[in-house]
# Entry
Amino acid sequence: MKLHRFIGDYDFSLGHSLTGEAKSEVEIIDPKIIKQIKAVLRLKKGENIILADGKGNSAEVTLSSFAPNKIMGTINKVDKKDKTKRKVSLYMAVLKKENFGIAVQKVVEAGVSEIIPVITERTIKTGLNIERLKKIILEASEQSGRSFVPTLSPILSFKDALIHGKNAEEKIIFHLGNDLYASNKDAEKISIFIGPEGGFTEKEVNMAKDSGYTVSSLGHLTLRAETAAIIATYRTVKGI
# Structure
């Protein structure tokens, strides 16, 4: 059975003995997680969960005691994972309505490492609810079982975004009508650009070319921006 996963600020080494024995306890004090465990999932003493710190460390924990403002758990085993070799940074134009949030949720599930919102010439909406997006990222990371929580960077202009992503080994701006994307399987750091609802302007595409970016497409069909972001992220993460 899949265990419920919660990401927070946990230190799994605090309870270790001086001899290095793995007998340890961890406390849960985040009110939102306590509410989720108690009121929503109605987990009981003796049930197991996964706690993760979003930095590669996770632990299987048995719930041992409940207090109004704290839950204690006994650590059964700790797992540490290294970051994947392929780090994908998604530079995505801010989208209208809730579409940006939907895209963020799905690209996190697809394995993105970093999300950078971008203002382009055809961007209509220029503001974002950053706290809500961070919550979406955290919940999507928990749901998909990720050991590392992707970062959300400040909004950049298109010009600044090109500079920000230029040091990647693979740099792609996706634009309909160009050559199909073919992955550089050896690249470990990848920058990908997804435009707004109306796509990038030719001026922006030429700016990207001049900055060393490859212009590619995801096929002959016209995709919604959020769909393109999901497909592009998945393909670049997997190297396909």
Observations:
- Helices lie at 31-40, 99-110, 130-144, 158-164, 202-210, 225-238.
- Confidence is low (pLDDT under 50) at residues 15-20.
- The first strand starts at residue 5 and ends at 7.
- The chain has six helices and twelve strands.
